[in-house]
Amino acid sequence: MYKILIIEDDRTIARVMAEYLRKWNYEVIYVTDFKNILKQVVEFHPHLILLDVMLPFFNGFYWCGEIRKISKVPIMFISSMQDNMNMIMAMNMGGDDFIVKPFDLNVLAAKVRALIRRAYSFQGEINVREHKGAILNLSDATLTYQDKKLELTKNEYKILELLMEYAGKVVPREEIMQRLWEDDNFIDDNTLTVNVTRLRKKLAQLGLEQFIITKKGLGYMVK
């Protein structure tokens, strides 16, 4: 079970985040002593830290620097300030991601899963995904179907990998965009639509016309 430490001085927000993330089978606690944050990090030994920027005594940037002296644990900053300077400062201080208040808890969970997946994915896992005869090669970002092979762009590959990973389930648009954000190429909602449209055209060339289904207002799925 992955452990998450929430460093957020608004007790209500901290409690709501903790309760929601526990539903995803994470072990979650939140800091109550903001003078001794580093001590709690060492004692709890979390796999992920959710760190607010504005805190009592010292801000989140300070604590991120202190944590980075002893640990490479993934850190996601939380802030009500959306300006680029705060985001840049967070990344420069050693943060791994950034989420702006107020945020949807589903988006928070998607970001948490993505960050944990990046940090703790195991080597040597099976390097293909298969669904209804379509085989996605995770090593070279190609799709094979009925002896035909298709080269995918980086974004097309990431979209298809996620949809095939959760085949038969709707994947929210926000979670797909988060997967595309992993290398700092920020993608908005319209850009996602363009990428999916291009991917569908390529899939049609292989005879997979209805491989990706749109669930209006929810997201996409393969079924």
From TrEMBL:
Residues 3-116 form the Response regulatory domain. Gene3D superfamilies: 3.40.50.2300, Winged helix-like DNA-binding domain superfamily/Winged helix DNA-binding domain. May play the central regulatory role in sporulation. It may be an element of the effector pathway responsible for the activation of sporulation genes in response to nutritional stress. Spo0A may act in concert with spo0H (a sigma factor) to control the expression of some genes that are critical to the sporulation process. One of its GO terms (biological process) is regulation of DNA-templated transcription. InterPro entries: CheY-like_superfamily, OmpR/PhoB-type_DNA-bd, Sig_transdc_resp-reg_C-effctor, Sig_transdc_resp-reg_receiver, WalR-like, WH-like_DNA-bd_sf. Residues 126-223 bind DNA. This is Stage 0 sporulation protein A homolog.
